[in-house]
Structure prediction request, 263 residues.
Amino acid sequence: MSSFTKVFDDKRPVVSIQKKFFDEVVMYHFLPRFFDDWEVSVEDNSITMPDYIANYENAVELKPKALIHIVKERGNKKSLFQLQQISKLAKGKINAVTNYDPFVFASNTIAGIEESLTNLRYQPQNNLRFFKGGVSTDEFDFDTSCVADTLFHSSVIPAIVYAQHSTFTGWTPIEARDRYNALSNEEKQLLNDLDIDNMPAHVMQILRFMAFRTFCDLSVFVSWNEGEEPIVRIVDVDYKPASRKFEEWAIKYINILSLNSLC
Prediction:
């Protein structure tokens, strides 16, 4: 383990279902022992400022997104994130597309990480945030090369790539929605309760898909005080109830395919 602290964290309120999802499902079934060298903590920061922001002079939040190739229609080679840019631009959600490419970030080279951070600085779109003295600021007043070097040596990027590969089912969100809708009410309740002891294999695969989406939505924080070693944290690994997400994911995916002429 490197000289700085690596922490796998969740800044959402602590509830038993969240801890069960991470400890018993993700860590035990999908990623056995892989994160054993990380300090795992689940804290209730729903009211107070998270300590990885409040206790540090500087903190950078990065949302890497899906780092593996999952949209393969018509030989597409772009990342899901890049394809989503076209959809968001068409809907007026962004003013310009960003040059950030998750595949470049996933290459885990210092140059690639620095390029990714630089592109996000120009078009952050809520995928890059900087906190100074515990306060979010639009001024990205940090050394990109130092943050890139920290991320490279932390092993956080290959850890996320491995987690995404290990939980990827190969399904599109459309297929996942259809599989979820085909479940009986009893099977859906097993998902909601995370009753893995009584969960059939085909339901467990749906849970695997949900774990994959979790690893695509997480954030990475690099926090530091001047003259001290930085801390790298992975946050937002919370469980998203199935009933609220599958239709939303499918609709977004259909729009992405349509606007990029992939269907």
